[in-house]
Amino acid sequence: MDIDFTSLGFETNFSALDWCIVIGYLIAIVSIGVYIRKYIASATDFMVAGRSLKTFLAIATMIGTELGLVTVMYSSQKGFTGGFAAFHIAFAAAIVTLFVGISGFIVVPLRRLKVMTIPEFYEVRFGRDIRILGGTILALSGILNMGMFLKAGSLFVTGVTGMTSEFHLKIVMTVLLCMVLLYTTLGGMVSVAILDYIQFVVLSFSLLFASVMSIRYLGWANIVDTVTREMGQSGFNPFDEKGFGWSYVLWMFFMGLVSCAVWQTAVIRACSAKSTSIVKRIYMLSSVGFLIRFLIPYFFGICALVFIANNQTLRGIFLSADGKANSDLSLTAMPFYMSQILPAGFIGIISAGMLAAFMSTHDSYLLCWSSVLTQDVVAPWFKKDLSSKARLLLTRIFIVAIGIFILVWGLWYPLEQDLWDYMAISGAIYSIGGFALLAFGLYWKRASRAGAYLALLTGFLALLGLSKVQQLCSPLLDPIKKHFEIEGDIPSAIIGLVVLATAIVLMIVGSLLLPDKRERATLMKLRSNLDGLD
Amino acid sequence: MDWIKIWTFFFFLSLALFACLSIVVTIGGFFNIRSLFKDLSAARQKAEHMPAGDIQKKS
Hints:
The complex is a heterodimer. Chain A contains 24 helices and no strands. By secondary structure, chain A is mostly helical. In chain B, 20% of the residues are buried. At the A-B interface, helix 2, helix 3, helix 5, helix 10 and helix 11 of A face helix 1 and helix 2 of B.
């Protein structure tokens, strides 16, 4: 897959000046993160910034986390392969986030309960064993989900800088990870929030600038014409079955809800907010951020397609004879395009912003999964409450352990599948069961532990969305494919929707057939009223 | 349905909204950071003047 674009006459614009900008920027933000250490006095300060984040800082940190380099990479790949029709994913994410902001669905009751993690809610609502099981599934799913982050980051660095030596690349990524580990273990959520703010500022303005530059360089009419020529109606209409189709659109609405209200890294922002009214405001305003975090990368992917499709040499490399994108190379298309059109100096700023976003996502995810492991998997085993100091130490140990795991997994494990499939499936293991437990646990009095167990374990069926797993389970799936006349793999969106429906049905049936002896919903409401704000 | 017109309008509207949000959050966030540090410093000073047992309870 390694192609030397320089020998083909495509030299990167990334210069020595850009390296200086990137290195200087990264050193500066790590120094700030380490300096902030002096403000950390307790586990609450470390994990949720003392629950004192106000609206604008909370929005910046939420967008800073969610607008990661990995999101930019897999979204630009979607734009490259799906054209303008991919915009529906951004639209769905914005609509759903706005709905959560207006209604307070899931996030407001969670904040009212003053929980730090979602499994902590599981314990309040369903019992300690559900917390441990839910915490284990959440951490497993989350850590696997971030397992490919370094891989995506390294592809970005390769594409932008024109770096060809794999050894140098591994060194760069290892150094980056060490920097993240340093400031996350020392500063916790306070440093994460401040650095996310800085990264939000750098990234949002540089992305806007790069969008304007792309339109000026390629021309809007040329972009639209090329997508029409290459993809036809399916490049614009998301419901066209040659492209995404109805099931995919529906699945994306659910994924939008998951990423803002069920995924722990987003929910932890709600838990860190000062009050429930701020939680609502954060979500309403963040809906624009959730929109943009997909929309601009899709646009860059589309621009990369236009740039490549209009050049015969590049077309031969990136696109097959029928105009379909080569999946191995489509991930690198966007960084390659950036390296060709952005001027020296600015490419350094945007790369620094992207790498900072890469670090920002890492720090938040590391903090999030280590907190879940400490609070929800290890701490519940102790009869006496673990001290704040012990929890802090344990969280830091987990941060380093997860860091080592993702370094080994991401850099040395060969990814033999589509990045988006990997991300969606690994995330769905948790999010399908998690959604059922949160929605029914918060809004249905009769939801029981039996229903919760069934819904959580059903999430594992989402693994069927992987094409390799489908091949392994072919004796089981072939009759279904034959019955519905499906050629090739069953689409992952259909698998996801079916598993989601199954989890919801099992949650209801399990709760009705095996109700709890003790009414836990009343206990939860009492706690909510005692601790509630507003 | 003219999807080209819809996505063109949607894209430019989103860019404009995000530009406004970026400016507002950049300015507002700066003041939030100042206030966060003030809160955390005050909490830290309070903790330093508290007996050890109380601090543990509070955490």
